[in-house]
Amino acid sequence: MPNWLLPENIADVLPSEARKIEELRRLMLDNFRLYGYELVMPPLLEYLESLLTGAGEDTDLRTFKLVDQLSGRMLGLRADMTTQVARIDAHLLNRSSVTRLCYAGSVLHTRPSGLHATREPLQIGAEIYGHAGLEADAEIQELALASLALAGFPEVRLDLTHVGVLRAIIEGDAAALKDEARLYLALRAKDVPDLQELTKDYAPTVRDALLALPNLYGGIDVLKKARETLPDLPAISKALAELAALAASAIDRAEVAIDLADLRGYQYESGAMFALYVPGLPNAVARGGRYDHVGEAFGRARPATGFSLDLRELARLLPTAERKHSIRAPWGNAPELKEKIAELRKSGEVVIQSMPGHDSELDEFECDRALVLDDNGSNWILKNLG
To answer: Which residues form the Class II Histidinyl-tRNA synthetase (HisRS)-like catalytic core domain (predicted)?
Structure first.
């Protein structure tokens, strides 16, 4: 095997693609700052027990694990930055007021999330801590939609769901509570036969409500159908009201859909959740939601909601950027030449000096002008190249 081959679903990012990713990263982080979000940079690896605190089983399975050569303790390479940022809020910042944090960095997965997905996503996201009201959920949802709009995706579908619906349905049924993990998997896959088998011994009202969930998807009118179909419980009424408010806040910015069986992230989410879809990608390009109990695992319960997306996956959907117009200049140490090049670069021009005896092969730049001496050989001027 050639020694330059990379592991499966791990790839180098070449110049034109790297530029797209970096421009998206800067664009989104700058926009986060306009909303008042502060940038944090968690470490790539942590002690395993800290990294997985408050995370679900999915995160555990996706985490690379290794032994620390200094302490002998188990370390984990982060598969998701959300719990790391929650730890920073809970222990390092330790604020009592509302805190807005954002982040961007590579994460590693033991297995790809999809057929062509990378195992090294570049995750970017934003989180709000300290406010339990729907205002925080609405802001995070707005920020996620604004991020995709800035990236050049005007057509977006917003899928909404709420973990409180399932939890309210099974709360009073011991058999259903025992099967909670299996119910989650069956609902997520919309596996009705498995759901029928699982629920055969449940209380009739619980069984009927669970079997109704896979069919409660579609437009906003699904919420009306859900109110008529599901048990009249305060927690369910509250969850549906929250979904209605979030749907109304986004109706003019995205196609809104409701799917009460889409419970991806159910294990650590605690309220409303959303997923964003764009043309050209079957999977969600961004996911977000409320996860109030994660901070409790760090010894300091804080309401929390946020979203994240993979910049590498997003950039792959965008067209290749046009090559940037640039200036070719000769190599030399003449003070007049160096002064002219510095002046051009200061004005925002890309100036590429040719190394002696070499031609330039560039993916990102197109040299359409050259820096040359005038006819008198005394001044450096720009000449258009044909």
So the answer is: 10-314
